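Support request, please re-run this one:
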Amino acid sequence: MKIKHIAVATILSLTATSSFAADWYLNGSLGHSSARDESVDELNSELIALGVTGLSTAFDDSDTAYKLQLGYRFTPNWAVEGGYIDLGNFDYSATFTGPVAGGAAASLKVAGLNLAAVGSYPVNEKFDLFAKLGVINAKVRLNATATGSGVTFSEDISKTNAKAYWGVGAGYQFNEQLGTQLEWERFNDLGDEQATGEGDVDLISLG
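Re-run finished. Output below.
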């Protein structure tokens, strides 16, 4: 966690002291991600269908996230940006009492490279509203273990797929070198339905 904060702080300090041309910008953002994973409900239903009883589950659906973006503004209204987005980890756990006592645990890690088009509406010289539409080449890594009757089963699966995302936000420019922005983004159907399961992830970030 501390490494993520240090990385973002370093990027922000570079932004403040950089000598990029006015059309280029560098953005480091730290935020909160939350998963909307319908596959968790499907997994619980499948366990019950298999005859599992006494099922108790938990899903940690949020984490700290960060992103590093390099962008180029063609006009005051249009820009393109891309870079790296780390949406964090999401953890699932389950215990059951029958037909044999046991448990299961799974962790999902989501990160990838992205590219997006950004449309802005300058309200005044310092404040603007924007929307974006992009693609993330997201790698979803699933690490899962299950135990029961003294037997342990584990698997580690990674799938990388290009998926669409979109977002909206607002920015404020302190001066020619430094500004800030608050945004919300939705990343759609991340993962692979057969291998890791699919789910949406929301990201609220400040950069």
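The beta strands are 24-36, 56-60, 62-73, 78-96, 102-122, 127-148, 151-173, 179-192, 197-206. Confidence is low (pLDDT under 50) at residues 6-21.
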